[in-house]
Structures are given as C-alpha cells and as structure tokens.
Amino acid sequence: SDWVTVPLVGEWFPDAFVGRMANVQRYASGEDTELVSSVEDAWNTMALVEAAYQSSAAPATSIAARP
Description:
67 residues; mainly alpha; flat
C-alpha cells in the first residue's frame, strides 16, 4: 500500500526531547536526584530504531539480542 501523509503540529526535535533535556539540566544543577532514563533505555531505543531501518529494507527483521 502507499504511504499516507499525516499532518502533525509542532517540531519533532524540541517537542520530543524537552522533558528529557530539562531533566538532564535539573540533574546537573542538583534539582533532580535521578535521571528519567538510563543508558540501557537509550540502548534499547537505538536497537529498535536500527531494527526498524532493517525491517524497512527487508521486512520482518527481528531485533538483535543485547550484547
């Protein structure tokens, strides 16, 4: 099937990361005592992104096991 364009409002980059970046800044200044995401969360997110790229090129590509 053909791609469908979905009209979206806002800018993806600042809107997607404003909460995370605010948390990093508050953590660095001592206002927050913990970060809302971990290295493991970032790793899993990037594994999902890479699997999506692979799936787009060759459908039904599974996510590789964690190292």
